[in-house]
Amino acid sequence: MPAYKSLFISLPDAPEFQSESSPAPFTTDPKHVAQLLTARGVSIAQDAVISSVPRICFTQVTDEKGYSVYSELNQAETLAFHGAITIGPGCFLESNPVTPPFHSSCIKLTSVKANDKPAGKITLGTGVQMLGVAIVAYEHVEIGDYVGIGPGVTIMDCDGHTTEGRGTDTEIARLESAPVKIGANSWIGAGAWIMKGVQIGENCVIGANSVVIKSIPDNTVVMGNPARVVKKVS
Fold first, then answer.
1. Of 115, 5, 114, 161, which is closest to residue 69 (Cα–Cα)?
2. Catalytic pick from 32, 82, 103, 161?
3. What's this model's pTM, rounded to 2 decimal places?
4. Which of 15, 124, 150, 219 has the least CB density, counted as fewest CB within 10 Å?
């Protein structure tokens, strides 16, 4: 059955990510958080802003026989994830669930290494802005320049499990992943889901709570479950 090893390199309540110098309600200093994340293998541009503390996790999952339990990655295993998550220049990531004027939560970025494959990559281009977003990458999730992503959005390049034979010693080998790419200057509305293999073009709008299972051309507005084209952007 699948054996999981994970390491949470940041959590909102981790003492080492709390800055004593910042007054409430801003309990963390963005530069302080960025420095700690960089030291743990996340690539962050100098002018990117990490507001509050995200939940960033490295997960290794392998096929094994017999009973399996969760355990923690050791230092050597963690090196395979260094550079897997890249946050580009001018990005703004908001993980504070209190200060935004609408419902939000902590940003969650998870890189997964399945069997002998490389660690999944998460790449944020220049000027990406997002809050309360969850991204899971087995292969590659790429967010283009100046993309805006609303709260509660989930982006995954793999389902994370099979529909048949779950928990067997071949499940991870049978997982199917496909890269996700969101083109520059697009907007993803709150609560949307972007699924594996989806390529969203430039200058697109994804309506709130939409479920996107097919690729979207440039200059397109889509909404619904499953998401359908409703108009073109001139």
1. 5
2. 161
3. 0.94
4. 15
